[in-house]
Amino acid sequence: MAKILMAYFSRADENYFGGAMRYVKVGNTQIVCNTIKGLINADTFKIEMETPYSPVYMTCIEEAKADLRAKARPALVSLPDSIDEYDTIILAYPNYWGTMPMAVFTFLEAFDFSGKTILPLCTNEGSGMGGSERDIQRACPGATVNKGLSITGSRAAEAKGDLQRWLKTNGLL
Ligand SMILES: Cc1cc2nc3c(=O)[nH]c(=O)nc-3n(C[C@H](O)[C@H](O)[C@H](O)COP(=O)(O)O)c2cc1C
C-alpha cells in the first residue's frame, strides 16, 4: 500500500462558530485530521508558523489578510526532511480569505511534488474550497491534484461520514 502523508495547518484559540466567538484548544482542521487518523494509516505533519497568528480572532484575520496581500511565505517551525517516500499527500487547511493560509504555500514550495497525488481538504465557514485547488496546482505543477473535500469547520466533529466517502473515492479506504 502506498505511503500517505497528511500535512495540515490548523489554528486553535479564538474562532467564530455560527454567530459567536469561542476559544478552542483544538482547531477545526485538526479535529478532521484526528478523525482521518482513526480511519487510515498516514504519517502526519503539522505546518506551524515560526511566528503564529494572534490568538485573538479579529487580529488574526487582519494578520492573515496582510500576509495574503504581501504574498508572504511565513517561516515554518520545521519541515519534513523529505517527502520522497510518499505517493499521496492529504493536504488539510482552513480557508483563509478564499485560499490556503500562506504558511501552506511555504510548505508546498519547499518540495517537488512531481508525480505525487495531492488530496486537498479545506475547512471553512461557507466559502468551500475557494481558489485553493487551483493554487495548489500552480504551486505543484507536476502533481495530480484530485478534487478536494470541503468541510464546514464548525461541524468538523460530525464529518466522519463525508471523510469516509471521500477517502473511498480516492482509493484510500
Ligand atoms: C484568517 C481567517 C480567514 C478566514 N477566511 C475565511 C473565508 O474566506 N471563507 C470562509 O468560509 N471561512 C473563512 N475563515 C473561517 C475558517 O476557514 C474556519 O473557521 C476553519 O474551519 C478554521 O480552521 P482551523 O480551526 O483548523 O484553523 C477564516 C478564518 C480565519 C481565522
Characteristics:
single chain, 173 residues, alpha/beta, Rossmann fold, 6-stranded parallel beta sheet, globular, binds flavin mononucleotide
Description of the structure:
The protein is of the alpha/beta class and 173 residues long. The protein has one domain: Rossmann fold (3-Layer(aba) Sandwich), CATH 3.40.50. The protein contains five helices and eight strands. The strands form two sheets. Strands 1, 4, 5, 6, 7 and 8 form a six-stranded parallel sheet that branches. Strand 2 (13-17) and strand 3 (20-24) form a beta hairpin. Bound molecules: flavin mononucleotide.
Q: What would a concise description of this structure say?
A:
The chain is an alpha/beta fold and about 170 residues long. The protein contains five helices and eight strands, in the order βββαβαβαβαββα. The protein has one domain: Flavodoxin domain (Rossmann fold, 3-Layer(aba) Sandwich), CATH 3.40.50.360.
